[in-house]
Amino acid sequence: QDEDETDEEEDEEEEDEEEEDDEADYQAVRQVYFNIVGGACMALGIRYAGTADKQAQQVLSKYLAIFRHSRKADVATVAGDFSKVDRTTLDTCLYSTALALSVVMAGSGDLGTLRMLRSLRKKSDGESKFGHHMAIHMGIGFLFMGGGSYTFGRTDMAVAALVCALYPRFPMDTADNRYHLQAFRHLYVLALEPRCLEAIDVDTKESVHVPLEIRLKNNEVIQTVAPALLPELDLIRSITVQTPRYWRTELDMESNQPHIESVRTNRQFYVKRKTGHLSYADDPDGLRSIFSRSFPSGVLGVKPIHTEPLLNQIDLIKGFSADPNILAFAQHFCSSVTPSGDYLAETIVEHSGMLDTYKNLPWRQRRLMEKQAVGSISEVLNNHFENRMQHAAFCLAVLYECLANETPEVLQTYLSLYDMIQQLDSQVDPLALRNLSVILAFYKSRFPVHIRSGLCEQPLIQFAFLSLMAAEVDKYFEKQNFTSDQWLGAYLNDPLLSFTNGNSRRRAFGAYLQYHFMPTILEWQESKAQLLSQIGSSAQRSKLLFPSLSLRFPHLSASFLKQLSQYL
User: Fold this and answer.
1) Mean pLDDT of the region 264-272
2) What is the DSSP pairing of strand 196-201 with strand 268-271?
3) What is this structure's pTM?
4) What is the CA 252 to chain-centroid distance, rounded?
5) What is the DSSP letter of 130?
6) Which one of 55, 121, 199, 240 has the fewest beta carbons within 10 angstroms of its own beta carbon?
């Protein structure tokens, strides 16, 4: 009986020991499970470091939420069994997963990841150690590393550096170096790579937002918006700008060595905005296109027009170009807002002391003299302002013409020709007139009639504008009457003859000869002698002179040849 009691006690003790062993095994299983999951999350973060992979982000965010909920409730689920897990294991897994998530999204500034890290920082309790705060702040720093221009690489050196920097043993305080030397946390800098690609507007030299299509060597296509972090450069096949607002640009990262070196060193490429579109920063939805607005008159509409307010003009011109020189030109030369001549005349008369000369006159006579003074000054000012408005209207029309055709470099040519015509009566420029005649001759010989009539693509300068300028020059020379015997006849007969007229008239006559491509006097005399010897004194002489001159001087106009034939 005593032996039976002893055996029963031993059996009970063995059962108690087995129960204790079972409980100890369950506790170990729980710790092993959480450490395995936490280690897998850390490995996943290093595997996809700096890639911003969406699937890796979703997995790590999921387990980060699980660890956070487990620590908050101080419970964990293992095969349907709810039991407590020690706080140290949960904290290690939680902050290791947070670091892994920030490593994956390094440099991206992802808003969802930032919210999760900030919530961990705000809701820390009294049991949180220095190492926990260090891990959260390291994660936030990784998220915005280099202001979004740096991320982590995945080379062997980078992986080793990240393992040393993210080692999942967090210190208790600032002097705790028992399990891991805290200086090793800074080794993450050895894994950094600058991979932020910026798109630079070629006109403004500023960084702009541009949609990019990145094609990898495994035929995977990534759609992103510059400035953006690129994948590893060795994996990229091409980078293409795909947007209707900018001209298409493609960087060949597989075989074009200059493109590869440019991205590696400068991490920039230039883009050109198309006419009629604003940048994505100024017009995110694309609802401010210039094609829905009205335009001023064309280049030939040189009459004064009521232009839009200056601010509206500048806003409209920004749809064409962001060049500061173009905007300054529109602001200073295309505004027709001027005060009235009467108002300025009254102001001038009032402040010039002119009224003092009339103070001794009778009242009626004084008022009459004042009105006459104001009227004379007002007439001059009104003429000046009218010319100014006409010039502003022309500048605005030419500006729209050049920008719409994407030829802003021709703007100076238009203005030079216009100013030359406006100054014909005051000062003639022989060189400018010669240039106009060269342009006209080039357009007539290079472009057929059907192109000049508008059936095909227009050249740089409108031929109708050039024709209008030529008509104005012909009118001016017709007024000068240089075809008379006093000028052209006298020059052809005796080029050394001194003209008795003034310098301005002689300068204008020289411009007349230059404009019509007058040959040198020696060439003219030789041609004259040959023609006269060939034609002789036949009855058909008058009919043969003009065709003979045309064959001799094919570059001269028909009207000028007709004038020269009169002096043969």
Assistant:
1) 87
2) parallel
3) 0.57
4) 22
5) H
6) 55
